[in-house]
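Expect chain and fold; thus:
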Amino acid sequence: MSEEMIPDVEMTSDVPEKKSLAELVKQFEELVQNEDRMKMSKEAEAIKAAFYRTLSKDKAEAENPEDESFAEIENAFKDIYNAYKKERSEYNRQLEKEAEENLALKEAVIADLKALVEKQEDVNETFPQFREIQDRWRAIGPVPPQNYRNINETYQLYVEQFYDMVKINRELRDLDFKKNLQAKEEFCAFAEKLAENEDVVAAFKELQKLHEQWKEFGPVAKEFRESIWERFKAATAVVNKRYQAFFEGVKEQQAENLAKKTVLCEKVEEIAAREVANSNQWNAFSKEIEDIQKEWKTIGFASKKENQKIYDRFRAACDSFYSRKRDFYTEYKDGMNANLEKKIALCEQAEQLKLSTEWKKTADQFINLQKQWKEIGAVPRKKSEQLWKRFRAACDEFFAERDKHAKPENDFYGNLKAKQRLIEEMNSYELAGDESDVAAMAEFQKRWNEIGFVPFKEKDNIAKAYKDALAKFPSRNQRRSRPSRPQLSEKDRLIQKYHALEQDIVTYENNIGFFSMSKNAEPLIRQMQEKIDKSKEDLKALAAQIKALDEAEEQE
């Protein structure tokens, strides 16, 4: 009766995706020191594949992909891998040589068995020789896979012929049958025990060994041949069914993993195709990519056929994103360097002008330079503060010298005091709620325009104070469009001013958030922060005034 062998099924290796290059080199070094390293070719190839994927990823994400450290660690890995590959190649050649030698030995055993069958001499002489031939056969190792089936079938043919043709002594024959039956019953019991093993894969591999050992033993008595084989076959079927069911589950899981990874590929491809305007967006999208990569690592393998394909797709999408990011920052850096050259040129122009005594003409030139400065974009962060101080120093030196030499008709500090007094007068003005307010405002504006320039360092502060003082006056258009609007009380006016100041603070804080996108915006951020601090102080003052009015109302 024919006995069938279930073919082995190759499983996907567990590739070490999460290790660094150094860890992978160390893992390979440990592998080549293992006594069983020659049987660990799948692990070796998995480490090699992971190493080159990690190397490619690290190069793609590195600022300098040509860094010598990449070449050094790659050469170190190649040396270890090539030595292992050479050793394994020699090991395989030795196995092939031994298999060929085993084939020759088994062919010699079959020749001896054939000669023994053809002799048909007295069983008392032939049976000990037959035993010796069986022992020799079992002691010989594996033969080349392509010869395994043929050599075993030939051997079994002559074994059957020996039992059928030789007039063997019944007592010895029965004894041999009994020993074979006992061995095969043990095989059956072991196979039945394998059906209870929770490790389905390990049980299946052990079953393959049992099949090989089963064939090494001769027949049993005719009355047991059918039953013992049916028992062994039944135990084999249970293990095989569990094994097949296990791999059906693996296939389903692999299909789910493929679907999940496909979704992640689509997400990365969508991110990689987005239009990106600034470094803040690049950083945000990079974080999305990193989160997706972390999720990818939590998903198991797809099928052996699809796993590499889906990984290559995912890697290509990530590479596309990071390639565009590198191009952006290269262009951004070039732009900042161009801006740096422009601002250096403005510094040089300011330094050439700072000693000029043509006060009006040069002041206009400095104002134009300052306007150009604001229009130029970001420069490298390390140079920003230094460059701004250089430019500001030249401006300050000129305007300080100009203020010292101011003529009586252009007394900058006198003008500053005059404007401060005018602002105090505007703040103390009590609104009447009629056309007289508009007339008063016009008069204040006229007087303001008649006052000359103030010191350069004070122009922004005094301008803001004037604007704040002017804010409470209604414009002519407001008076026409809302003639029936009731006059605001002092308390309501303060509350209105308080809310407006709160909005200003929100605007300033938003501006800081916007300026922080640029690496050289420290002066602007500092200026905004000063405005915020000043506005918060004003808020406290307004709150105190409102509180005082509340207390006065309660006392009335």
